[in-house]
Amino acid sequence: MVGNLDRRGFLRASAGFAAGAAAGFTCVEVARAAPIEIPTVDRLSLRVLIDSAHDQFLKPSTVQGVVHQPPGSGRGSNYRKVLHNQWGLSLFVESQRADEARTILLDFGYSPDALLNNIEILKVDPTKVDALIVSHGHHDHYGGLTGFLDRYRSALRPDLKLYAGGEDNFCHRLSPSGVQGQFTDFGQLDRRDLTAQKVTTVLCEAPTVVAGHAFTTGQIKRTSIERILPNTFVERGIKDGLGCDASHYSAAELQGKIIPDEHVHEHATCFNVKDKGLVVISSCGHVGIVNSVLQARAVSGIDKVHAIVGGFHLGPAPKDYLTQVVAEVRKLEPDVVIPMHCSGLNFALEAQAQMPANVLVPTTGSRLTFGA
């Protein structure tokens, strides 16, 4: 699938293939760099499999045409079980176009225990999944993936693909330890597990259509006032079969330094809902939620934003910066803003202050319906 990559992209992709082949990774494709045709869906449903909190007292609501159905107690039919919340995000995404249905599992939470527990309680059907998407290389977004595949791979389609934003998703991440210059391990996504499960990884530095209904933004340009707030550090290279293509080394890394994470291959997942506009799902938004939406607009040629959904990584934002970012979000004129995961209570409160009629806060187990 190298297809229409430009020369620079082809050389980078070739380096990635070479590094992958050397490490035993054979199930890799590279998305085409040619313009894509944006699909339109009639209806979109997001089931929040994992988020950071559960509120059993939330009431059903409709905000700007988006229907929110909370899960109630979250126990299902067995009072001994309950939905698990954890730092992370996982969305079970179902779309409909005429008689054609598609299902995508977007991100996988921090641990398989929570993901598998919530799949059972919420009674979603994982065997319907047509494609997998990982938003970026943080453990709280891919941690449940291997456990999910261990449980369900035999019941899933044989040609299952995982769409990742690019090679950077497989880099080794580290967290600051609190001591200057020292770090703690934050893991890395292991392609050997994917190869063993016969899952093909598609590297989507370029915008990519997924399952015929969704599209990804590709690498997100940084054009807004936003900046990456401090989070993890990254170490590139492949060691003992783990890691990412060393062709992305920076000058600092060539000197053996571990560098602040720039999330160069974080991507957003998008849908164009008929007569509504874009639904842009930013699972963590490290590169900026405004940047993500602007990229979705540029890729699709569609200006109307129906909904901005997901994690926006503004929990650690200082007040003045948060106020400025929310003002920029408001300028995008979305019908509804739906913060989850790392967006932060501070974001929800500021958004409600600036956009009181346009904010919907869901919970683990919520179902959100667009184009109902």
TrEMBL record:
Pfam families, from UniProt?
Lactamase_B
Q: Which SUPFAM superfamilies match?
A: Metallo-hydrolase/oxidoreductase
Superkingdom field: Bacteria
Q: Where do the Metallo-beta-lactamase domain residues begin and end?
A: 94-156
According to the UniProt entry, its GO molecular function terms are: transferase activity
- Membrane-spanning regions, if any? none
Identify the CDD domains for this entry: DHPS-like_MBL-fold
Q: Which InterPro entries match?
A: DHPS-like_MBL-fold, Metallo-B-lactamas, Metallo-beta-lactamase_dom, RibonucZ/Hydroxyglut_hydro, TAT_signal
The record ties this protein, via PANTHER family, to: METALLO-BETA-LACTAMASE SUPERFAMILY PROTEIN, METALLO-BETA-LACTAMASE SUPERFAMILY PROTEIN (AFU_ORTHOLOGUE AFUA_3G07630)
| Protein name per its UniProtKB record | Metallo-beta-lactamase domain-containing protein
Organism annotation: Methylobacterium symbioticum
